[in-house]
Design brief:
With about 400 residues, this protein is an alpha/beta fold. The protein contains 16 helices and 16 strands.
């Protein structure tokens, strides 16, 4: 199938220009050439590279819309896919947590979700990939990681350690904690009766366990700590051998960034302080921040502000995090605040994510690239809205306003 967009303001890699763009057999085959095939009138609209979301866990609200209330995973996957296309996201990495805890973020639930995505792939409109959000103390996930590494669509691997984060001393702010496996890492007393309420109130509710059951689980898992570094290195080596992009999560120290870079995780996801940011920049690592952070004007837990990082040139990617509409909304706010020029901002949700995930076939409007594109209605001084999403030349979403 061949079709041409006519009259759009097109975001090319190095300029914004009104021109034609022709698509054929899923690829971009012409820019500025004659009209071919079906003509799509795009006057007054922006034609830009489609969004690539490297970390999104909003799907959890479809799986469990209320605490402890599960819906069929197939229903959740299909509904999430519709939300992706409507928000201009052509490629997504569902951040599926593989944890030691039971319930929503268990290894069993994560594997079910991944299997459902595979089974439903012929019916999905966006390209649904997976970010293996591995809690590093979850050694029960190792077999599932091996299985997931061989998925038809290559996943990414993110190293998470929320257990150590919760075990830090009460007087240590979350942003000031040391590298989790530094011998000087300050620890709370596991026997403190106030520990569950102070650190795990929401988590306990999510697992369905009572406090005694939950703390028994935590003690058993925490006993694994002496072996976790070698386990991480082993998993990272397997991922590297398969060309799987790796990320570290919530870095606070240069030492943290250095450790993960040394095992192959060359992207820092949601760094909390300037120490890992500066270290990442000095060594050519990529940096991801959350779009909700940018939309809200700062981090909800007092970490680095995404807008400030974008303006300083310390952000390569903006991810949806927990809210798919946040990606486009973030670009609107950052543009309004003049944090960077329009093309640089759009690259944070297209070109930058493609680079971070090693997706060389998409992320820009260039001849020969995959036709992952969006048509955007963005009136001057108003908020943008997606009017069309094409994935490899297939129409995944179209909308026409009343006006």
């Amino acid at each position: 199938m061949t079709f041409t967009f006519q009259g759009a303001t097109v975001y090319l890699p190095d300029q914004i220009v009104e021109t034609t763009v022709t698509i054929s057999d899923g690829q971009i085959v012409g820019i500025g050439g004659p009209l071919q095939g079906e003509v799509i009138d795009a006057h007054g609209k922006i034609l830009a590279p489609a969004l690539i979301d490297v970390h999104g866990d909003a799907f959890e609200r479809q799986v469990m819309p209320r605490p402890g209330v599960f819906f069929p995973i197939e229903t959740a996957v299909l509904e999430t896919d519709r939300q992706l296309a409507a928000n201009g996201i052509a490629t997504t990495y569902h951040s599926i947590t593989l944890s030691f805890e039971p319930g929503l973020r268990s290894v069993e639930q994560g594997r079910k979700m991944m299997q459902a995505i595979r089974d439903l792939s012929p019916r999905l409109t966006a390209e649904n990939r997976v970010q293996l959000r591995w809690e590093t103390f979850a050694t029960e996930a190792l077999d599932t990681l091996d299985w997931a590494f061989d998925a038809p669509l290559k996943p990414s691997l993110a190293f998470n350690d929320h257990l150590s984060m919760a075990m830090r001393g009460y007087d240590v702010p979350i942003q000031e904690r040391l590298f989790e496996h530094n011998p000087e890492f300050a620890l709370v007393d596991l026997d403190d009766p106030d520990l569950p309420a102070k650190r795990w109130a929401k988590t306990v509710a999510r697992t369905g366990l009572n406090i005694d059951e939950f703390m028994s689980m935590i003690r058993n898992v925490w006993d694994r700590r002496p072996d976790i570094v070698e386990t991480m290195k082993s998993v990272a080596a397997k991922a590297a051998a398969k060309g799987i992009p790796m990320l570290s999560h919530d870095d606070t120290q240069a030492e943290t960034r250095s450790f993960y870079r040394d095992i192959g995780a060359t992207t820092s996801e949601f760094p909390m302080t300037m120490k890992p940011v500066s270290d990442a920049r000095a060594h050519g690592d990529l940096i991801i921040f959350g779009s909700p952070n940018a939309v809200r004007g700062g981090s909800h837990i007092g970490s680095l502000g995404a807008g400030d990082m974008v303006e300083a040139g310390n952000c390569d990617v903006l991810a949806s995090d927990y809210y798919y509409p946040a990606m486009l909304a973030a670009i609107e706010r950052l543009d309004r605040e003049k944090r960077a020029d329009r093309l640089a901002l759009w690259s944070l949700i297209s070109t930058g994510p493609a680079k971070a995930m090693g997706l060389d076939d998409r992320g820009t409007i260039e001849i020969g690239k995959r036709a992952d594109i969006v048509l955007v209605d963005w009136p001057t001084g108003d908020i943008p809205a997606i009017r069309g999403t094409w994935v490899a030349g297939r129409c995944a979403y179209r909308a026409t306003s009343f006006g």
